[in-house]
Amino acid sequence: MSQEYPSALFERAVAEFSKLPGIGRKTATRLVLHLLRQPESEVESFAGAIVRLKKEVKYCRHCHGISDTEVCPICASPVRDHSVICVVENIQDIMAVENTMQFKGVYHVLGGVISPMDGVSPGDLQIASLVERVAQGDVKEVILALSPTMEGDTTNFYIFRKLADYDVKLSVIARGISVGDELEYTDEVTLGRSIVNRTPFTGKSF
Fold it and tell me: CB atoms < 10 A from the CB of 25, how many?
């Protein structure tokens, strides 16, 4: 136990919270102190929710988004346009696009973008399953809604090449989003307009 903490159990809890993205030791300490002040039943409920999340959450077998069932509510919905697929980098991006209330199609989560510097290759992403969905012949349009970064553009071009032989329209979200911005942090109005005003993707640089 270090001199900084009077309890080894407290120190361990702080260390675990510090592993979360964006959580430093000071914030982790405040969170642990907050939990200590709560009734035991509430802390047990909190811990139980995290354990159930890890054990029971599923990934949709169609879009690879998170779900409580084998097929997520969006992919299972009869009112969504299943002929239009919006390709996003991660699950947070689905939430961001859904918040705009401008998109009525379905999604496909890649699980990242191509980034040789970070050791991420096309085989590490859900690109093959996207091609399989398009190959079934029911998809009319694929919207590439990746963040406007070098890695995002590289991934867009790779997907463009993989889908070149299929009769499907490829479009990219309008560049109302500044180059280098992450999609999940874009305001809803800008993101919504970028979806609505999407443009054909030709595989050429912007």
Answer: 12
Scan for tokens 């709560």, then name that residue. Answer: 38
Same domain flag for 38 and 95: no
User: Which pLDDT tens digit goes with each residue over 114-142?
Assistant: 999 899 999 999 999 999 999 999 999 99
Same domain, 112 and 149: yes
- Assess whether 85 and 49 both reside in one domain: no
Q: 0.85 cut: is pTM over it?
A: no
The answer for 181, left when phi > 0, alpha when psi is -120 to 50, beta otherwise, is beta
Q: Where are the alpha helices (DSSP H) in 1-79?
A: 8-18, 25-37, 40-56, 73-76
Contact, 144 vs 172, CB < 8 A?
A: yes
Closest CA to 192 of 88, 100, 92, 85: 100
